[in-house]
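[retry 2/3] CubicO group peptidase (Beta-lactamase class C family): previous attempt timed out, resubmitting with same input.
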Amino acid sequence: MKFKAGLTLLLCGTFLLQSCKLGRFVYYNYANITDYKIFPARAIKAPEAPFIFPQSQQPKPPRTVHIDGKDEDFEKYLADHHTVAFLVIQRDSIQYEKYFDSYSDTSVVASFSIAKSITSILLGIAIDEGYIRSIDEPITNYIPELKKNGFDAVTLRHLLQMTSGLEFNEGYTNPFGHVATFYYGTNLRKAINRLKLADEPGQRFRYTSGQTQLLGLALERALKGRTVSSYLEEKVWQPLGMEFDASWSLDRKKDGLEKTFCCVNARARDFAKLGRLYLRKGNWNGRQIVSESWVSESTKADSSDGSAWYYQHQWWLPTKGGDFLADGLLGQYIYVHPEKDLIIVRLGKKTGNINWQRLLPTIASAY
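[retry 2/3] CubicO group peptidase (Beta-lactamase class C family): success.
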């Protein structure tokens, strides 16, 4: 530990990085599901009376999984491929819930890009409430300082669909890339101000975290003094009866901005409730949390204006069968299959070299 600390100080001093971004990149050596411990964060409080998924009276746990032409023991397969939590809920009842490697139902896991889908939920609510007029507004209505960088033609829709043409290096292994700056840096607003375009907006899909962070700053400014975390607490966490408090990691402690591209920290059952919200078309036990039209637009295939049919409003569509999912680095997933009234949450330390976007629909097909 002393060696690492010394190396961090050396790198910070050598490169004169006020934020010590490079030093932290080397010190922490790639992202981890426990990274909520290393960043400042805003608390998101759960309500006093939580919604609890009941255990199924006739549970149907998966016994095997068919991989590469053979059946594998399901729980051994999950454990061998770095899973820490796996949850299957059908018709509002828990069919299967298992934790691995000392994790439990109370263990916090960093969401990574599941936060992108959460940011999309909040944008939909902000439109419903009139804070944002339309996703066809230019981003410069909310971040006017980007006009000098040619962003007048970039709309919120482009950013939601990942078709803005943003120049952004997504690689987590590059200490000098954009992701390192956004993830480990301490001034997201300054980093956003430096962003540029590589392509004309609306021409092609290119997944980059910078686009969601632009949406996050736009949302913060639209809320006029309220934080993104407090908005999540009031509009989603409390109404959905989350079982546990959560947090949203910030770039800095004082006047910090939420890392909307990556970093909501919560537990498996509460992640599942986000899936239930969209499974019920934005309605939670009779209360419309986000408009049904927003959920519909977020979960139907559309390839117009450069969009990829399999990515809509910060949600992934693994098939054209109506299912959809939120997907985070290292294998964090909230998968929803409306036809089967089914939600699956998988959290893990690594993907385990598994194509979970392909495997989750296969697991769902057994129900």
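[retry 2/3] CubicO group peptidase (Beta-lactamase class C family): The CA atoms of residues 166 and 246 lie 31 Å apart.
[retry 2/3] clearing retry counter.
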